Amino acid sequence: MKVILTPEFSDLFPGETADVGELLAGIQSKLIIQLMALINAELYSNDQGEVTQVKILNIMMTLQPPEVKMKIIGSAMEKMHGHPEQSTYFFTPSYCMNFMHYELTHFRDLPDIDLTAEQELNTFKAYFLITEQYARDKKQEMPEVSFDDPHYFGKLMWPSLIAAAGSSVPLEPKPLSASR
């Protein structure tokens, strides 16, 4: 399993606050589930690292003007600058599945419409809010163990290794805040 860094909502949209429910109001759940399925398929069947990440980023931000895309990418690069040795991914299968789960549990059956640029950006923002919450939940599940603890391996590493052995996901996303 490869550990990667993933930007969070606060990394990409500094100073902004948002609510997932408000961001996704008026957007059909079916559309988002199809989008996450497309992204997940791309990640599983054709993952070429950064090339795939850029392709998915372009899919999710088709309607956005270049200035908006560059501002988001610039914010991500600014946060990632301190971690040049780590791979950076915006999209991972576990995050996509988490967003799909959110949509299935908060299903909105609305009439078919074409997305506006604002709705597309709101979907992008919601993805990162959901991934931020997922990362926060994962972090709370992990015990606080000091590297100096003589039982570090048994308390933290063995459970991680066992969980990884049962997982078919080759990447484990790690939010930037966990690496600080």
Layout of SSEs?
Elements: E1 2-6, H1 9-12, H2 20-24, H3 29-45, H4 50-60, H5 66-80, H6 93-105, H7 117-141, H8 152-165, E2 171-175
Parallel strand pairs: 1-2
Key terms:
single chain, 180 residues, mainly alpha, two-stranded parallel sheet, 8 helices, globular
Arrangement of strands in the largest sheet: 1-2
Helix/strand order: EHHHHHHHHE
Distance between the termini: 21 Å
Q: The biggest beta sheet, please?
A: 2 strands, parallel
Describe the structure.
It contains eight helices and two strands. By secondary structure, it is mainly α. The protein has one domain. It is globular and about 60 Å long. The protein starts with a strand and ends in a 5-residue tail after the last strand. The relative contact order is 0.23. The mean pLDDT is 83.
Brief account:
58% of the residues lie in helices and 6% in strands.
